[in-house]
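Action item from last week, closing it out:
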Amino acid sequence: MDVAVVALEGNQLNGDIAPALRELQNSDTVHILDLTFVRKTADGAIDVFELADKEVADAFHQVADAQFDLLSEEDLRAVADQLPNDSAALIVAWENTWAARLTTALRRSHGELLLLERIPRETVLEAIAALDSAAPRASVPQGADGPDST
């Protein structure tokens, strides 16, 4: 299971991310187990919204087929405490159903997962940029078009 906290600009909750979450759920890539929003007002007051709450229910219907309430009030409070005033966050817990299928296949083939690590996107982009800058440049061969041609 993974838990992600996604900071949202401002403190207005909208459904812009709902279609992507629905697609992941419907394609059986993930099984969304819990989805909650926290909002911190300009004066520091904290609001918590779950899927059944009218503030998010319309936009996020059919994102998760069940809400397991895996995130405690303490968990949500810890996230909210880290937010600056006048901001919001989405907290989502999901099971990687793709990984469950892979794990089953690994067991059947007597394989064992020894390491699974996430590499942040920024790190990958930096590595790609470093490879691109270190790649040798194509050189113009000496010959008919070169300065030494006769």
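Closing note: Confidence is low (pLDDT under 50) at residues 144-150.
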